[in-house]
Batch of 4 targets.
Target 1
Amino acid sequence: MSHPDYTQETQHHACLLVLVRGIGGVLKNFNKLWERIQKINNIKVTDSNGQVRDIWVRYVRDYPVENNDWGDFQTHRRLLGLISISKFTNQVELNEVCRVHESLKVKYTNTLYDSRAFMFGPGSNLKKPEQEPETYSVGLDDDKVAKEKLTFSDKISLPSEQIDSLSSTDSFPRSSSSASYSLPEENFTTPSNFKTHAMFYGENDPVLDLEQHVADLINSLFWVVESKRLERSKEKLEKVSLLLAPFEKRDFVGLDMESRNNKKRCMGRVTKNLADLTLQAGLVGESLTLYHSSAEILKSVNDWLWLAAAKEGHCAASAILIYPNLRNSTPLQRNASLQENSPLKLKSLSLYQPSDPFRKFKPNSPLKVSSPVNPPSELTPSSSDSMETSSRQSESENADTESLSSDIEYQSQRSYLTPDLPSIPRQPHLQSQHLLSGEDIAERYRKAIIHYSKYQNAGIIETEACFKAARIAVEQNNSLIASGFLQNVMFINLMLSEQEKIQRFDTLAELYKEIGFLRKAAFCQRLAATRHVSANNPNPDWRRCYYLMLHSFPGHRLSLDPGYAVQHQVGWPVLQIQLLQEVVVAAKRMVHPALATRHMTFLLQAMWPHLGKHEQRDLAIQLQALSAQCEGGPVPLVLETGEVIPPANLTHVPHCSHFTPRPLPPPRMPHLIKSKPQQGPFIFTPIHFGSLERTKKDEGKMEYLWVEDDICEVQMKLTNPLPFELKVSNMRLLTSGVVFESIPETIILPPDSPTTVNLHGTPKEVGELQILGYSTHTLGVKSNCRLKNMPLPNKFPSSFSLDVIPKLPTITIETELISGIESCGSVTNLSLYNGESTECTIKITNTSSVPIEYLDISLQSNMDSQLQSKVFQWSNDDVQSQLPIKPNAVATIMMKLYGEADFLDLGGCDLFPNSLTSNYPSRVGSPVPHASLPTQSSNQQNSLSSGLINRTSGSFRSTNSQTTSWSAPLSVMPPSRGRQIETQILLRYAGGVGSEYCRQSTLQVNLELLPSVSITHWDVLPAEIPSQLYLVLDVTNLTSEELDLQYTDNKNILIEGKESCRVPVPLDRCPFNVTTKTNDDTIDTKSISTSCSNSLELMCSDHITNKVDLRWKLVQSNINGKASVKGITLSQAMMDIVRMSPLNWEVSINNQCIKPQEEYSCNAGECLSLGVCIGNHLSRPLHKLCLSVQFYQDYNNGVMNYKLDNSVATAGNNKIVLSTLEETAKAYHECTVVFLTPGEFKIDIQCSTTEPLTDDPNIKDMSIHQCAGEISHVWRFIPPVAISVTD
Amino acid sequence: MAVCVAVIGKDNAPLYIGGIGIDTSTDNELSRQWLVHTALDALEERLVSSNTTTANTATNAARTDLRDLYLGLLYSTDTHKIYGYVTNTRIKLVLVTSSTSPSGSNIRDAEVRTALRRLHALYADAICNPFHLPGDQITSIKFDKQVKNLMLNNV
């Protein structure tokens, strides 16, 4: 025997072997028929004693003839039956089919007992089968006819077969058998030498009676076996011939067969043979005893081989009893209602009838012998209990009677299809003395295998025994023992073909798997795989090799899913790498480049951490070569077997160390139109309640927004870990959620240097967008690298999610200046002289497809907002009127720029006028008369006319900064230096559906303000007319050019560069009723005095500012501008000049009205009558006025002499008190004066009040100075009257 | 004579495999790995079975404590014998002897047992290194040297 059958199992010892063979053309439902046949693996036959026997059948598709030779050694190896399933379409084919069938019969002629042929011809309604030789036809359509036919065939063939088989072993071909020829059509005839029970069907017939026919066959086989058993059991022990295993034939040549030893050997072997038959015939319990006794006998003669066989048989029988499940491995799905145990019912169903030929076979059998005589119980296992020591004789006798009874009781029960376990009669066996326990079975098997191993020629038997033992151990759940048996298989040295070796490993792997030894199984599978393609194998099969390798993955703790493999890094990397490399080779050799690429990718990906630098490089190069044949893609590959190879994505090549979506660039970033109100008083708090959960949930949620139809960006940092340049093409983003159009990117990565890559794309819908990862195409493999599958050191969130908002418009901005400077960029540079103004045109072009419906312009600069609004001026209405801006339309915004500046050079006051300030404070708020005023004015006039500043003159005074709390901050606008103003014009615009958001463009305007003119000092002088005054300004030209300053409508002056000059500006005095209600209303009485004075000052200052119109022009560069005196500060004295007096003075001398600037002269001793009339211009009465007249001499050197007792004599009061002066009322006072000595005299006429004028704050005509509660204010008649007295 | 020694972690991933290359040419690193890898099945099975038996005889608690760490011969091939040893923390130590070499063919069980005990001690020393992370591969040169020594001395 040279062909091991690895699928053998222990229970097959008790089976009848039947070959099922397909002949002729391929029958499409062959497999279905094969399955149906396989289901009929157990039938129950009632034997001659009425005892129900369980007959088991094993069907094989192929059986080597050589194995038949071992039939004597183990009877279950004999092929007993043959079923051919054939197809033919014409007569020629039919003949061929018949010939093959007959030749098969010849092939197994030594053992074959019976056969059936199922023939499938063309057409479906085969009506008239014809039997050529005997012109005998039976219709198949009629059940009755079929039955007749069967009956006939039974009558003719079956008994004769039995006769033959019983009488002689060389019964084939059965000469006397006359097969029933049932031909499908008249045209078809079977050859005359075809002598088989054949059934004809149409190809598509359901073949309803298949089971029945198969059961018939088995039934007939049983009877042959049974008769064999009986025959064997009746043999005289002394005369039995020696049974031999095939290889033993030579061993016994020339030996003395008559020796006692050999007799015993014969006896033992025959007993063993009988035990085999008994087991096959369904008498398991009896076989136990027989096996036991044969083992005893064989042991005594040291016949190891047969002893082993006996032990094995013993184990088999025991196992069958202990583990009935073994037999029912194939699930039985027949309806339980079909099971018929009642003999009557069986009988009624039986197609077999007692036949005459059979009776003839045993003509002398006593009819009276029936089942009562030999009750079934005796043959049941329970009976074996009682026959513990039953000898072979008794057994044979028993069998004899059994057989005798058979001819009467012969009711071949066609109890086909018994789904239930034939357990009832078996139970008593468990008490059998010879029944082996589970451990015993393993032990016996071990011994048997040891015995087998003594014979080199029994290697295959040993191998099979090992497998059977292992299977039993598996059934016993004893993995270690099973593995022991399996391990033993490896040691058996057999001369096997490669194919058989592969099968051996395959079976080993399967069994190892069953006991959970996955690694062993994997090892075996890999060995099998290598065998498939080994050099010794004449026809290497890479496909099988591949699949075996693939299936050994679980044993190596390898998963096909790279993600899993990476995460659960278990197993043996070295082995896994080896295996994967082999799989790649196998896949390549089986010409499935896609698979090879896939596995190589997997290898590179999953095993990356375990690969050395060198290996990484080599494998990458290999992968490149492989993928050149077939590109790898991120799609699962489905194998022919239905297995799915999941995609392998290269996340290590290139290695991504950084991945973040980027917000849109600032000009395109969306902002909320209405910013959210602050959520509370705290801008920042370190306390976040429930912050833990929130951060977990929002991981990967981006705070910024992306906009539909707008290019968005994700930044990644990639590193090429390979030592050569890596081209990564077609990089895209993987997204889910809204539709996203990714723009492919191709990059070339240098080895080992991190490169920043930006991937772009455009969301096409509104909603939430999830960025799951990116896809690459490198080394010829397309990979989808998902963030969640990224290799460990970098922890990425599983996805980034972003909100996509509806489309927003985009714009381009161009700015154009009047001067012709044009700039498209966002930065405009511009320089202006202080006071110069220009215009800037901002052109906004809508470059998107969305109309702009909202446009808002605002400024941000380093100026305060007040100044800002003066420098930049535009019309918001004009902007709004141009909305909406259609796509590709242009809107223009005119923006006026003005070089706003404070022209008053306040900084100068610290430098030189210190000397002058000394007399300045003395004037502030002081009631002391200032005799110097008239001369000052004259001097000023002189100096003004000269156009030069006489700095040493005391004629001007600069204001002090102490009182300038309301003027512009010094630091912002120093007029003498150039300033840089950086301004951003913010354009917020929106449109379309997403009106909640807008975009923001900034326009940078860098404005350089150059100094033009500055006013360094100023003063006020009373003009010739009381209603006017002169504002005297020292104007400095700060440019280097000549400057033409126009200070009144018709007066201008040229100032050289860097020069200054003094100009008088005639102004109207500030009227009372200029009401600039600013800040008094809410101020309480305590601070009212200062506030009043401030507001008054402010009023005057405003008045001056409004009236003064200074225009300058740079002669050379033709630039003109304005200057203003905004922020001018005035002292109390100056204010008195600036303001219209509340009192109307009318001073007369000798009833002659005195005009301003007029000098009056008289002679010494002359009597002058001085009349002073004051009228109240206020809208309310004045109280407690004190009018006084005082004479003094001004020496014009700052000294004033008030002690004029010797030179002036006055008659009449020089001081009177008016209790009340009604509004619009006038008061008149007159006194007479005589100048005693000649000289220049001056009269200081003043009116003071002690009444605080705070009752009515609405009238801010007076500043009340509460000096010690006495004098609150003083009005003077200015200029003072000058009288020159001559002799 | 031991030809290969392996330390295998709890999750059956190898922590250390050391072999000495004095064996025949076929006995390269890869085949050693196969040998040890396939031995794991039997080793695990033995562990499971010993566990179940101890569980069954739960009354005999003392026996559980005294459970021998040495598991004995796991399996043998034509050329090698593979012995197993499991520490209480489920670290598996596997020792492979060559049955082809004269000294290895008739090695005694007790010798293997002592060798494995010594290996256990070496392993314990190696992981006492505070810089060693349990579960990582053992890369200690000293350990490697000592193990190689052990394999050679244990003739």
Target 2
Amino acid sequence: MSKSLGRRDFLKGAAAVAAGGAAAIPAVAAAWTQEAAPATPVLGPGPVPFTLRVNGKDHAVNLEPRATLLDALRGPLGLTGPKEVCDRGACGACAVLLDGVPASSCMVLALDAEGREITTVEGLAGPDGKPHPLQEAFVREDALQCGFCTPGMVTSCAGLLRRNPDPTAEEVRDALSGNLCRCGTYPRIVKACRSAAAAMKGGR
Amino acid sequence: MKPFSYARPASREEAVRLLSPTARPKGGGYDLLDLAKNGVSTPGTMVSLAAVPEMGKAWTGDHGETYLGGRMTLADLATLPAVRAACPVVADAAAEAATPLVRATATLAGNLLQRPRCTYFRDPFFECRKRGGAACPAMEGDHAEGAILGNRLCCAVHPSNLAAALLAAGAELRILTGVDGKGEPTWRTAAVDPAFFVAPEEDPLREARIGPGELVFDAVVPPCPSSAYVEVNQKASFDWASAAAAVVLEMDGGKVARARVALGAAAPVPLLSEAAAAALAGKAPGAKAAEAAAEAAVAGATPLRDNAHRVQHLRVCVKRAVLLAAGRGR
């Protein structure tokens, strides 16, 4: 979109020139093709229209460049699964999957997530609304107390199981080393992740 | 964060064209956003490198050297088998950084050029030499995580794992400096050596000799199979190093022909310890030589009131890194 915005702006300018005199059209068009692409547009600091692909659907947003992906998700998109806690990428409560890989959405600019496949905890359930095996396992293993870290924990576990469907307890702990749980539910979270892995291997 | 503009160029030429003292390159953005969120500094424009194609990859050159793209993620640096085999010191350093969530996004150049993590620097409430102030409140205040070497004016340690690793490896940066009249990029190279880094005595406002309009395109790392990076932390994960050592050994038979020992998290800049390297030269890299190197590395340390423990941490790191490097690449 960044490129198309720039071209649209340029074409508007070209149209204005054309209105002033037909002779200007070929000259402008030639210059445009010879210099390859126009310069990359600098967007903002005011709101910029762009599209975010979240949980399989495209969403049009209009946000300042300073908006983080977390701002976009929790604000205009109304997806409050990812939580804002430390706002510095230090706690994992805001974890989402970016192209299948867990990342802290508080430290990603929304504009940088354009064109990427974003999955929040809300998008993990099946198309029929059935909870993801990880969500079922967290309930089954009682892997939460206050629950505030849970969306980030589930999301990080989902990222792990995508690349490693049968992790050891050590591998789960390593994958979750950026997710903090102040209730100290870690042992049950590790158990739930491995339990979900087993359930998924069983054809779930 | 204060408002800023944003650009996402699709080529390296466009990227370097957009840079200026107020338009800063953005890789993962961990440091840029942290500084902006804390109100320390907000660039007028963030130039996202996400769409510059070549910068996210690693490839191997004709002489076994590894080219590491400037916006390669720490996760890729830590896990790509080719990087681990050719320069394990770099893979170790990337793997030790932060957490999986951070490593998925944070980049090589961003890690190398991040500003200090000192609490006083990151909080504009305090006066700080790194922000143009006349004093360093950490000297009298909380410096438990402060420097034990080169700490006369400022005791913020250099926070970059990769800086120590690239320094030990004798890496070279290929830096884009601009675009010429034909639209071709212009380049310079900069060895990652002690002269690349800027100590507070020379200029407290920066840590590296790189201009505002310049872009770290990639790092070229000579093959260094007998190498290792070791750090000591207080927490098992997501903790800035209490001390770190990056060691590269060139072996000749069972003995060390030449060594490079870089010390991280010890001083405001990463240090190359000639004394530690000399202690290893000509020796079999066993426990005795490793301990001698460790002792040489901390000679001259000037710990502050509350950080003497970091001297021992540094000794341990040097010893372990020598022993780990010695077992590799043979």
Target 3
Amino acid sequence: MKITLNGEARDLNGPSVQDALAEIGLGAAKVATALNGAFLPAAARAETTLKDGDALEVVAPMQGG
Amino acid sequence: MPVFYGTAVESPLMLGTAQYPSPAIMAQAFRASRAGIATVSLRREGGAGQDFHNLIKDLGIPVLPNTAGCHSVREAVTTAQMARELFETPWIKLEVIRDDDTLCPDVIALVEAARVLSDDGFQVFPYCTEDLSVCGRLLDAGCQVLMPWGAPIGSGRGLNNPYGLRSLRAHFPDVPLVVDAGIGLPSHAAQAMELGYDAVLLNTAVAKAGDPVAMARAMALAIEAGQLAHAAGAIEARDMAAPSTPLFGMAVLG
């Protein structure tokens, strides 16, 4: 399906968010996710199915002031 | 030592983790200054996040994630929720920015976001202005600490409004207050502590200094000096001279 991943158009198999993370090599990474602008807890990734047009944000700890 | 939401912090220096020449120098700056809290952010994972997370954990001090760059309540709330899960802390440095040139907080959205997050169990550290009524609203919203700016983030201009910061201290004597942003020199940090502030949050002044490790230490020393001075009680400034050496007993020689 065609989704927007961190601002870039991607074609991923899914079907769940957890599957998509594994597909892009972040299956075991310490990341947080938001789906269409709303927080998606880690515990809900496996049961959340992606659909065409979804916007998925995947963030990680980074430097900050 | 400052106490934030019931947690005693080892040092009144809160130090950012951005803009250092290298991760190793950042870690050295933290060790040299014995900073009490490290501020961090969340950004799109491009591969560097996992190593950075380990580096931060190795510092061994509490982490304060921020919502830097957020311009709306929704963005800030979602970012805070992601930060709580990633860093496993209810603490959030809440930034909601209105203007990109000054990085001036949008105080209306800030109060709204602070209420949403406090109601959801967050312990909010709001990056705010020194406005008394805005600060009062933030406390009403559930905040138990206030972080007014000294000057715009990264400007290094010091305390633009010492009068306003002093008023805020006097108005809320029991609320932990932190000067956040605008510090350029150790003397600025000392001044904040002399005013009776509980802590100082800075980043650029250390990270972009010629020698960040030495500047980190200088900031820590200045903060300690300012804290001691506040506790010691300063004299009142006056316009006329007042001789410190006694006049009584002076020899008549002319």
Target 4
Amino acid sequence: MDLRAYRDIAWNGWWKQNPGVVQILGMCPTLAITTSIVNAVSLGLATVLVMAMSNLASSLLRNFIPYEIRIPVFILIIAALTTVVDLAMNAYLHSLYLVLGIFIPLIVTNCIVLARIEAFAAKNEPLASTLDGAAMGLGATMVLTVLGAMRELIGNGTLFSGIEMVIPGAHEIQVFGGDYPGFLTFILPPGAFFALGCLIAGRNWLEARRQARARSNPPAPQAPSAPEPTSAEPA
Amino acid sequence: MSQSTILGLSTRTAGAMMAFTAAFTALMAFTYEATHAQIAASANEEKMKLITEVLAANAYDNSLLDDYVQLGPTRELGLDHGGRVYRARKAGAPVGLLLEATAPDGYSGDIDLIVAILPDGTVNGVRVVSHRETPGLGDYIDPKKDKDKKSPWIGQFSGLNPATLPLDAWKVKKDGGQINSHAGATISPRAVTNAVARAARYAAANRDRLFGAATGASL
């Protein structure tokens, strides 16, 4: 594996195959926990940890796992590592743990985790697999963060509320002043769907524009990278 | 080896599965062992943080979390599975009771509370320990989520005493009482208000029994 292959893995996770806005996997936490930036980033980083570790473990063990029972073993790996992260957060980030509550154990059932093991870690070497897990997790975290920011800002008029649970002494930002009435719909589930829809549309628009540019001047020497046949459909 | 029977295949894969299970269970057990003391400490610290908000730390000098009575299921406190009452003392004299109480009729399930009651029956403070009320609507019962940081909603209970405040007044205004609530979000504050009223009456009626029982006793 050369450097370009690693770059492609990262690019896949962050943009091309982003779990949140392209693969649309792992929607339960994406929609449920994104009521504030702090919640979104915290759960996102917990997911990154679980994904990187479970991809690494699965890749290391891939030659010892009988094909017939690979799914139960993968789930076992994910469940065990999620338990580890859950216990560690409970011990060392207790107030944040109380806020995220049930969503940390639910990382076990976040389908993006199993999807990356099955699609990537089961066939690739440990280093690349770890990177893939981390990149996919970060891609999901980016979506969570933007969603959390949109919903918190519009719904509540603040940013970083609850930051004192992670960084003691830090304060939230009242963006629109203290008397912002709030826009409850954005905090409630419908706001999550609405914000995610906007995000997917925005990502598609950016991607379409990028492709149109790439087509209009194909031999551009500074094109992002050669092995990116983004799609083969006719112009 | 070439003839793979269902039994042989099951045995082999079950063996592999057990090996993996043993390995990962060991990992979980190790992590549990390494974190459980810290988790208990964090939970206690969290509890003490809430307790400090309802009863000043310099008001008592005993080891509060160790001086408790264990209650069985107590309907007056909404405790279906029992709970604890912590006794605060200064130089041996009672200075307050900290009751765990549950409001069973929140908008989305139970609202767990901690209520501090002074020996004369006055409510010293109330805090929400856990709840699942609607974010941005009913969750102002928790001062962390209350927009009014200067005089959070839950502060209204401080100083109320069931001996002097008639039961009819110990209700949200919508029900004819004197407790304020935000328009359009009455269910959560009503649940908390009624639970605090019940807890205050329970504490007043059982004060001597609660203070007198031996540490760790089950009532």
